[in-house]
Design a protein that fits this description.
4 helices; alpha+beta; Immunoglobulin-like; 225 residues; 6-stranded antiparallel sheet
Amino acid sequence: MNRSWIPLTVVAASLFLALVPVSAGAQGPQNVRVTITNLTSGQIISPPVVVTHSAGTYVFRAGEEASSEVAALAEDADSAGLLVALAADPQVADFDIAGGPLLPGDSVTFYLSGTGPWTRLTALGMLVTTNDAFFGLDSAELSGRPRSKVFSVPAYDAGSEVNSESCTYIPGPPCMNGGVRDTDGAEGFVHVHSGIHGIGDLVPAEHDWRNPVVRIEVQRGSFLD
C-alpha cells in the first residue's frame, strides 16, 4: 500500500470532522469500552461511528434498503447526516465518531454509556477504496455474560451504488473522487460485500479483503470520561 496517499485522506477527514457538530445522545456514566481494529491490509476505513441504543431502533439491516444517511457514509464517508439522525433519536443512548480514518492494522477506542434499556451496539465505517462498502455491526447485544465480548465484523455492500470499481466514483486512494454516484444497476439492499474483483481501476492484490474486516472488542464496566 502506498503510504503517500494517506495524508490526503487524513486531511480530507479532518476537514470534514471540523464541520460536523459531534454530540452524544442521552449521556450517562461511561460504562462501555469499544475498541475497533482494522484487519485489512489495503483498505483505509473512514472515521468509525459507534452507537449504543435500545432494541427499538437500528441504523442498518441486511436485506433492507440502506437509509440515505447510511448510503452517504458507505459511498463517500459522509457521516454528517447520520450523526444528526442519531442525535434526534430518543432510542439512542450515546454515540461517537473517531477523530480520523482507521488505517490498516490500527485500532481506535471509544467510551460510551449504555445502561438500562440501551444495551445494543452498532458500529460502521466506509472502506474508502470501494464504491459503497462499509463494515457494519448491527445491534449487537451487550447485556448478560460475559462482560467482555469480541465481534468479528464483515464488510457490507450498501446496495446504493453499482460496484463498477471505477475511480470516477471512489473517494479513497488512489482515486480521490468523492461526491459522484454510480447508481444504475445498484442492488438496492444491504448485503455482504463480495470484495474487489479487478473489473475497473482497482487492483485486487492491493485493495481486496477477506471477511472479517474489523474486530470489535467490547467491555462493560465503569470508565472515567
